């Protein structure tokens, strides 16, 4: 049996890392000039090896800005300030999408509808060698993406009729579903299960799972993950669906 005391060093290490991160932010913000890493290391007593990792993470998240060897306060700090207007949908979704990516280690995104396309406003790319990248800001066809199918399934009947009358459904791969009758069958299944699935419909070798996000009775967007077929199996599908469901619930209640 594991000694309960064995978990203490790990917890202490995590607390120390969090404390150092906050110390770095506070120290840099307190100065009216950019600082080099050596200055920060000496002032805060942080080993250079640990400091390098923490600085890199803070720059990546936008809390610090790097110019050559010097560091200063970054634009991401504005996200931490309370504001009367609240946070945008993208800002609310971003940490949840990031956590979903960490949990799955697959590319995860949050899409919104843009006419008869979808647009990724938040995306986190898998760190694995074989991965799929979603272009942030690009408009992509609803019928070929899991997020798009999820949003189509959430449309009221009159809007869905408009979609089929107005949309151009391009075939990107042999598996792309373009026929109205077949696509309607998919949408009925999505309404029944709550999840949308694509199997190499936009990119060969990539499968997608999507889940609509509803706030105040309105479908505001859809979460999705893109998984290479080489890593896709029933266990992965169940895990992804479970995490998408939980993440959507957190965003809907935020």
Write the layout of secondary structure elements.
Layout: H1 8-29, E1 35-36, H2 37-44, H3 48-60, E2 64-67, E3 70-73, H4 89-104, E4 107-114, E5 117-124, E6 139-141, H5 146-153, H6 157-166, H7 180-193, E7 196-199, E8 206-215, E9 218-228, H8 234-253
Antiparallel strand pairs: 1-3, 2-3, 4-5, 4-9, 5-6, 7-8, 8-9
Helix pairs in contact: 2-3, 4-8, 5-7
Beta-strand residue percentage: 15-25%
Helical residues, percent: 40-55%
The radius of gyration computed from the alpha-carbon positions, rounded to a whole number of angstroms, is: 22 Å
User: What do the pLDDT scores average to?
Assistant: 90
Kindly state the number of beta strands. 9
- What is the H/E string? HEHHEEHEEEHHHEEEH
So what's the oligomer here? single chain
Question: What is the terminal separation in angstroms?
Answer: 40 Å
Overall body shape:
elongated
> What kind of sheet is the major sheet?
6 strands, antiparallel
Number of helices: 8
Uncertain spans: 1-9
Kindly report the spatial arrangement of strands forming the biggest sheet: 6-5-4-9-8-7
Structural class: alpha+beta
